[in-house]
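Tokens as discussed.
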């Protein structure tokens, strides 16, 4: 019976549309759902929106935590200055190299040297060249045999490394090298 009522309503609408008259609104008893003018977003778009919103909130939280950490951490102490206004450069760290020859040995050396604390440009160049200093030291020790290195006095090794380091520099020169470690291990 409900089916017959729908059929009659649809036929009446078609007839009215053919005559050019405005279609009659559906009867309340028909239970025809009305379509709203707004479209609801699909479920996929809602999931993507929530994921992007969560990501944005996570990134904001990370940024806030990093800023808070940067403000609250203790300051890094500057490099120690000597009595005559110099700082000690130790960024080359511990250099490990293998000597040449049939009886290869491992050389472990920690190199440090003073530089003027007031010369910021030179300090920047030294920091930029720290890797080059390590490479130059490893190349020097790698070019010598273990026996030859044992025979060479430490001052001669320092003089050769000093010349190699100064050849890399443009804004200043290093005057003296210090070894805190100098080991030749077989």
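Sequence:
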């Amino acid at each position: 019976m409900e089916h017959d009522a729908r059929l009659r309503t649809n036929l009446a609408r078609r007839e009215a549309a053919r005559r050019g008259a405005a279609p009659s609104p559906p009867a309340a008893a028909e239970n025809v759902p009305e379509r709203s003018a707004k479209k609801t977003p699909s479920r996929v778009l809602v999931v993507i929106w929530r994921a992007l919103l969560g990501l944005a909130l996570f990134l904001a939280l990370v940024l806030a935590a990093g800023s808070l950490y940067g403000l609250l951490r203790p300051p890094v102490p500057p490099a120690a200055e000597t009595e005559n206004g110099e700082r000690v450069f130790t960024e080359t760290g511990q250099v490990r190299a293998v000597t040449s020859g049939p009886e290869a040995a491992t050389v472990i050396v920690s190199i440090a040297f003073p530089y003027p604390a007031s010369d910021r440009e030179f300090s920047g160049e030294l920091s930029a060249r720290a890797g080059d200093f390590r490479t130059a030291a490893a190349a020097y020790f790698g070019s010598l045999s273990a026996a030859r290195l044992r025979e060479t006095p430490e001052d001669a090794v320092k003089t050769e490394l000093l010349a190699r380091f100064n050849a890399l520099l443009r804004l200043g020169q290093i005057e003296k090298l210090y070894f805190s470690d100098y080991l030749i291990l077989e």
